[in-house]
Amino acid sequence: MVETLTGARIAVSIRVGGEPCHIHADPSQFDTALVNMAVNARDAMDGEGRLDISVEAVGVVPAMRSHPALIGDYVRIALSDTGSGIPAEQIDRIFEPFFTTKGVGQGTGLGLSQVFGFAKQSGGEVKVESEVGRGTTFALYLPRAEKGEGGVEDAVPADAVVDGRGTCVLVVEDNRDVGTFSTQTLQELGYGTHWVADADEALATLAAKPDTYDVVFSDVVMPGMNGVELGREVRRLYPGLPVVLTSGYSHFLAQESDHGFELLQKPYSVEALSRILRRASSKPRRRRKAAE
């Protein structure tokens, strides 16, 4: 997943310590935090460099941001890049919502804010160390759990992740990073995928090959026609073709609650994505070309 996000010109290495490193954390939020840190590292390296990822059990969280050190059982997940680094005067602001050092249109300033919020909500911390011209290390410290102690192995049924082979998904997502993550995840589950950036392109793709796709998986908030409007148009033109919508804007979904489509709240886990697509695509439908 990380190598797909970073691209071929960034070398990725992963080192895992010898002790078990189970954590107490929401899996979907954890996935999102890793994606946000990896994307931040990629952008800092301008698409070329080295990203080292390490995972290890530790017994202390170092003092940071005026907080004393914390003694206990934690897992440290660190991402170190060889990027441009962060000036010292900006270090204390990088976790603020909407603060970004990127150019206009290149970032929302919400990625690292999500990482910070996730760490705090999980009872952990996030530490950043940086040197201009040499690179940056972001380290997540999360409470460590014993194997089987409320872990994913106990919480997720054995059939939670389903082989998607034989099912083709039309992915509609205007954000490049999210689109890359979604299609890569689906392909790893065995699904066939085709990714388009907006509703107009989705409708053109369906018109060209109306019998190819088994389900449409679309973001809600997009430029132009939004996901709900797209879903209604798909329903009109291709009766029975399932539509699954996804969004991180819960208030938008609440306002548009009468559409009748399957909904997947961002951030989502691989298991949740697998389950909702299985449910949607397993419903029998009658294939037909678009209405005249």
From TrEMBL:
The keyword Transport does not apply. Its EC number is 2.7.13.3. InterPro entries: CheY-like_superfamily, HATPase_C_sf, HATPase_dom, His_kinase_dom, Sig_transdc_His_kin-like_C, Sig_transdc_resp-reg_receiver. It holds the Pfam family Response_reg. The modification 4-aspartylphosphate is found at D219. SMART domains: HATPase_c (SM00387), REC (SM00448). It is an enzyme of class 2 (transferase). Residues 1-146 form the Histidine kinase domain. GO terms for molecular function: protein histidine kinase activity. Gene3D superfamilies: 3.40.50.2300, Histidine kinase-like ATPase, C-terminal domain. Keywords: Phosphoprotein. It catalyses: ATP + protein L-histidine = ADP + protein N-phospho-L-histidine. Residues 168-281 form the Response regulatory domain. The keyword Phosphoprotein applies. GO terms for biological process: phosphorelay signal transduction system. Coiled coil: none annotated. This is histidine kinase. It comes from Methylobacterium platani.
